[in-house]
Amino acid sequence: xxxxxxxxxxxxxxxxxxxxxxxxxxxxxxxxxxxxxxxxxxxxxxxxxxxxxxxxxxxxxxxxxxxxxxxxxxxxxxxxxxxxxxxxxxxxxxxxxxxxxxxxxxxxxxxxxxxxxxxxxxxxxxxxxxxxxxxxxxxxxxxxxxxxxxxxxxxxxxxxxxxxxxxxxxxxxxxxxxxxxxxxxxxxxxxxxxxxxxxxxxxxxxxxxxxxxxxxxxxxxxxxxxxxxxxxxxxxxxxxxxxxxxxxxxxxxxxxxxxxxxxxxxxxxxxxxxxxxxxxxxxxxxxxxxxxxxxxxxxxxxxxxxxx
Length: 308
Ligand SMILES: Nc1ncnc2c1ncn2[C@@H]1O[C@H](COP(=O)(O)OP(=O)(O)O)[C@@H](O)[C@H]1O
Ligand SMILES: [Mg+2]
Fold this sequence. Notes:
Elements lengths: L1 H34 L3 H74 L9 H28 L7 E5 H19 L2 E6 L4 E5 H17 L6 E9 L2 E8 L21 H6 L6 H11 L3 E7 L3 E9 L3
Parallel strand pairs: 2-4
Antiparallel strand pairs: 1-3, 4-5, 5-7, 6-7
Helix pairs in contact: 1-2, 2-3, 4-5, 5-7
């Protein structure tokens, strides 16, 4: 859209420039040659004027081409952001429409048999509740991202103990991991005290441990290693799960990206977890990256400065 408008404008500018310069040059040339100079000098001056006009033309063309090229280059990031935003809106509508369709379908099924009791329709009702919860969670996540985009999501910085946050999160997941037969190991070193937003860090580890659990099969192992070095806290979250293919790895932090669409949908994901995780780490001035091998496992590396 931007490119097309720009192209039209620049081509128009270019032709107007060329036309004006050629006309102006020719008029000037004939006027000066006829009126101002005697025969002896005319030949030399003609040459000078010819050179002048040709240089002018070449200069104009070069400037027009260069400005066209630079303007196009400057528009590339704007175009990319625009396309990303459009993709985001399309994905978000799709994600919201799916649970709505399930809710509508289940309610319609119930309407078809008004004589049935609530106990008989139990599974339909629980489908509706499950999808409502999923939608509620999705809307909450979308709001967080919208606030993050509008730079309105501020951190509540305070002195926090990372070890305490990790222990809290592990307590939440312990039962689930045990049920799945996955070993969960935490190894910490040093003080691990930093200035950070406690709630956001809690959310970060929930996202990463939830993924580690979801994408690890029974008898697997998830380990969290945490230590302090060079005024930064280093965290590794390592699982022996299904891994991420090299083709997918660069996109895992993108909004709505899901590796194996069918499997992820089944496990209730929306592909926004890691996008939020990255935003939380970035906001704390840190870095997050993933290394993975299909069938072997995945490691998420995070570093966060002690003082923001
Ligand atoms: N620990 C992991 N092991 C394997 N794949 C992972 C892991 N964490 C994330 N992924 C992949 O990255 C994708 C994006 O993750 P996320 O943003 O949390 O979305 P989802 O809602 O699908 O979990 C997932 O669909 C999955 O394919
Ligand atoms: Mg996830």
